[in-house]
């Protein structure tokens, strides 16, 4: 059997010391997460994070930096995830847009407000990503190279 991690993207979006989160239905109840989701076939990572933010929040997102590339597994028999976490800015909100299935609301929360909801975080990566962002971790988007549908002769 070939081991394959899930590839996901996430966005840390800060405005006036508040961060954009989604509140989503999970098998563990309602939980908070950054706007995030899976890379789709034929899609590059930047297109994926823009799409996920738009689908889950109604905001248009412009990535500016990579915060970190995270490998996470909850426990030995659980799936592994490679999560590319971006930071950037939002513009052009469409409040009438239906949100992705499972998303019940969006919230702008401070770090302290999020910390108070620690037991409702989708994964430890939610708080880790905020703390990485607040510590100043920023890497250029130019680290990402996409070679989709390029033939080698």
What gap, in angstroms, lies between the N and C termini? 30 Å
Low-confidence stretches: none
* Top CATH class of the domain at 11-36 and 49-104: Alpha Beta
Report the helical percentage. 10-25%
Order of helices and strands: EEEEHEEEHHE
What is the number of E strands?
8
What is the mean predicted local confidence, pLDDT?
96
The CATH architecture of the domain at 11-36 and 49-104 would be Alpha-Beta Complex
CATH homologous superfamily placement of the domain at 11-36 and 49-104: Nucleoside Triphosphate Pyrophosphohydrolase
- Strand fraction equals 35-45%
What best-fitting shape do the alpha-carbon axes yield?
A: globular
Whole-angstrom Rg: 16 Å
Oligomer: single chain
**Main beta-sheet annotation:** 8 strands, mixed
The third-level CATH topology of the domain at 11-36 and 49-104 is Nucleoside Triphosphate Pyrophosphohydrolase
Overall structural class, as computed from helix and strand content, comes to: alpha+beta
Total count of helical runs of at least 4 residues: 3
């Amino acid at each position: 059997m070939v081991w394959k991690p899930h590839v996901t993207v996430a966005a840390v979006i800060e405005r006036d010391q508040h961060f954009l989160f989604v509140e989503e239905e999970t098998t563990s109840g309602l939980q908070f997460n950054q706007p995030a989701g899976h890379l789709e076939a034929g899609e590059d990572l930047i297109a994926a994070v823009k799409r996920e933010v738009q689908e889950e929040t109604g905001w248009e997102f412009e990535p500016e930096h990579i915060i970190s590339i995270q490998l996470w597994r909850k426990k030995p028999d659980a799936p592994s995830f490679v999560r590319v976490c971006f930071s950037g800015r939002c513009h052009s909100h469409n409040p009438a847009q239906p949100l992705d299935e499972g998303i019940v609301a969006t919230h702008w929360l401070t770090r302290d407000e999020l910390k108070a909801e620690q037991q409702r975080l989708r994964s430890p990566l939610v708080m880790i990503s905020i703390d990485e962002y607040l510590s100043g971790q920023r890497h250029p988007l130019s680290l990402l190279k996409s070679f989709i549908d390029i033939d080698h002769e």
